[in-house]
Specification:
197 residues, alpha+beta, Glutaredoxin, 9 helices
């Protein structure tokens, strides 16, 4: 089943490369639009390194920079498999930014529980269970998962990111359009941000 999911996912990517559809800009972000610094993170919601980065860096960065209006943070989708794509669909299904970030946090915190196995239906149920705990409506989550346009948007954002930023792995982080190659260490990351202040 896992092989089948990967084949379907690859076919979808090939389809959207050959027949490009302009993706709407629906970036999941927090922080002032006027912030001097923009941190972009390209990640897959099933990626353990992405969950690790979010846990070790994001919350400290939020307290030190985002909440003070110094940094705008953008989460960019770069799903590596069908499970990550579906989790991303649920994340973008809702417009409440506070709930979006609660869901993102819960998805990363519970990654080892939901992002396992080969049955995509069971994985979807686990994703929706996390959404329900943040008061996402089941009917809306079901509609979003069935939406071809929601899949189109995310896959096209991934393709556009690949073309523009040459993403080779996740997470890939940019600070004001410059790639950050440092370790997942907040002190080092904080120094990198301060260079732009």
């Amino acid at each position: 089943m896992r092989k089948i999911n990967k084949i379907i996912f690859k076919l979808l990517l090939i389809f959207f490369v050959l027949i490009p559809v302009k993706a709407e800009s629906n970036i999941v972000s927090t922080g002032s639009p006027e912030a001097k610094i923009t941190v972009k993170v390209f990640s897959s919601l099933t990626c353990p390194a992405c969950a690790n980065w979010h846990t070790k860096i994001f919350y400290k960065m939020k307290k030190d920079f985002i909440d003070k209006g110094l940094v705008r943070f953008e989460h960019h989708p770069f799903p590596l498999d069908l499970a990550a794509l579906n989790a991303e669909i649920i994340l973008r299904c809702h417009v409440d930014n506070i709930k979006r970030f609660k869901f993102l946090a819960a998805i990363y915190e519970n990654q080892r529980k939901w992002a396992v196995g080969s049955d995509i239906n069971k994985i979807n149920d686990s994703i929706k269970k996390i959404g329900s705990e943040i008061n996402f409506k089941k009917e809306k989550m079901d509609r979003c998962l069935d939406s071809v346009s929601a899949q189109d948007e995310i896959l096209n954002l991934r393709i556009e990111a690949q073309k523009k930023y040459k993403i080779e792995s996740t997470p890939t982080i940019f600070i004001n359009e410059k790639k950050y190659n440092g370790k997942t260490d907040y002190k080092q990351f904080k120094k990198a941000i301060k260079k732009y202040l």
